[in-house]
Each structure stands twice: as C-alpha cells, then as structure tokens.
Write a structure and sequence with these properties.
Elements (H helix, E strand, L loop, with lengths): L3 E6 L18 E4 L1 E7 L6 E10 L3 E6 L8 E7 L4 E13 L2 E8 L6
Antiparallel strand pairs: 1-2, 2-4, 3-4, 3-6, 4-5, 5-8, 6-7, 7-8
Length: 112
C-alpha cells in the first residue's frame, strides 16, 4: 500500500469553470492502494481498500468495489510505514465500469 504520483497534470481547467470549482486544481496521476476507514455515524466503522486514480492538493480520486454515500467521513492511511492518517469527506460517488469512483476532499485540521 502506498501513494505513487507522477508530476504530469491530469487536466487543464476548462474556460467555463469558475474559480470556486474545487476540481480546477492541478491533478497528478496516482497509482497504488490506500486503506480507508469509513465512519458515517449510522453504521459500524468499515475498513476498505481503495485504488488510487489521481491526487491534488485538495483531495483524491479513488476507486472502490461498493458505493459510498456522499458526505461520509473517511480516514485514509496515507503512509503505511509510519502510520500517518488524514481525514476527508466523500464529495462524489459515480459508477464506472463495475466499480465506484469516489472524490474525497481533504478536511482541514486546526492546530491545538
């Protein structure tokens, strides 16, 4: 498990996108897998393996075998060696080729 990214932008912003569109940010292709723990408050926490598609400063695009409700909070294990985790919110879930593509926006953390 782990994150591998190349430095090539995934797409260029389209002229009709507004500056507030969170998907305007430069994305890099990513490959590998991440461990995620879904905790939406209604069910027991659910551990899942996510396949990486691309990454940006504001979030990740990953694939999963099952759909995930938008608005669900997810903890991502981004460094399996040191056990570093980050949190995010599922902002998009679309079916593609028998799998589900999830857009995950990072949650900002405040210093204590």
């Amino acid at each position: 498990m782990g994150l591998i990214m190349d430095a090539i932008p995934f797409h260029e912003p389209k002229p009709d996108q507004t500056v507030f569109d969170r998907r305007v940010g430069e994305r890099a292709h990513a490959s590998g897998t991440l461990q995620g723990v879904l905790a939406n408050g209604r069910h027991m926490p659910w551990v899942m393996r996510l396949g990486l598609k691309n990454a940006s400063q504001s979030g990740l695009c990953v694939t999963n075998d099952t759909p995930v409700e938008t608005g669900s909070r997810i903890s991502l294990r981004i460094d399996p060696v040191h056990g570093n985790w980050c949190t995010g919110v599922v902002v998009r879930c679309t079916e593609r080729d028998g799998a589900y593509e999830l857009g995950i926006a990072y949650e900002m953390r405040r210093a204590a």
